[in-house]
Write a structure and sequence with these properties.
- About 55% of the residues lie in helices and about 10% in strands.
- The protein is mainly α.
- It has one domain.
- Helix 1 crosses helix 2 and helix 2 crosses helix 3.
- It starts with 7 loop residues before the first strand and ends in a 10-residue tail after the last strand.
Length: about 120
Amino acid sequence: MEGEQPVVAAFDFDGTLSTRDNVVPFLRCVAGFRTTIGAIGASALHVVTNARVQPLRDGLKTDVVRRVFTGRDAGLIDDLADEFAADIVRRHLRADAVARVQWHREQGHQVVIVSASLSNAARI
């Protein structure tokens, strides 16, 4: 119909489409438990001492990701992300949220996933 505005349905990923937050589990998938915990601890100290520069949560995530990903092969991280995303689809998607996304698609609406997760871990 002419003049109709398009409908955009936006869904948060962690905690809405997925039953959990996925950032730390993905980092553990890439680097293992010990490295991830070590990066979180080191980053927390670094971020707290530089809190005036950027908000704590964003600064912590940025610093942890830098520490975990630096020196790692990007292709390997992408391969791990594919496996991680497949696991999310198998075990962590909320059926009611997925049904709602499908309903919007059937109505011809544009569906957008909004997330603070790492994009390669949220590609479902």
